[in-house]
Design a protein that fits this description.
alpha/beta, two-stranded parallel ribbon, 4 helices, 4 strands, 17% strand, globular
């Protein structure tokens, strides 16, 4: 699913630096993708447990990279918020329809 999207992004912005943040388990599936300049593999558990300091550290590291834009290949609202905390002001990706959202969202 992501390869056609990455190809389209690369074709639209051939000079862009494309970096993909993935969990370590998914890294082998994308590490040889010709459309990516770099793959950043992280321990998935930092997103699913009580590890806010690790999330904050990763956000700070990404903030130093000064990314202009994030493409999210997930419908997670928390990842959208997290990308903003990482200093990425423009976030593009799936938006969950209102009918799919829980009462608290």
């Amino acid at each position: 699913m992501t390869t056609p999207a990455l190809r389209a992004v690369r074709e639209a912005w051939p000079e862009a630096r494309l970096v993909m943040l993935v969990g370590r388990a998914a890294a082998p599936a994308v590490e040889d993708n010709p459309h990516l300049d770099r793959v950043v593999a992280v321990d998935e558990r930092i997103f699913f447990g009580p590890r806010p300091w690790q999330l904050w550290r990763l956000a700070r590291e990404l903030r130093r990279e000064r990314f202009d834009l994030a493409f999210l290949f997930s419908r997670s609202r928390s990842l959208r918020v997290w990308a903003r905390l990482a200093g990425i002001e423009r976030v593009v990706g799936h938006v969950r329809p209102a009918a799919d959202r829980g009462a608290g969202e």
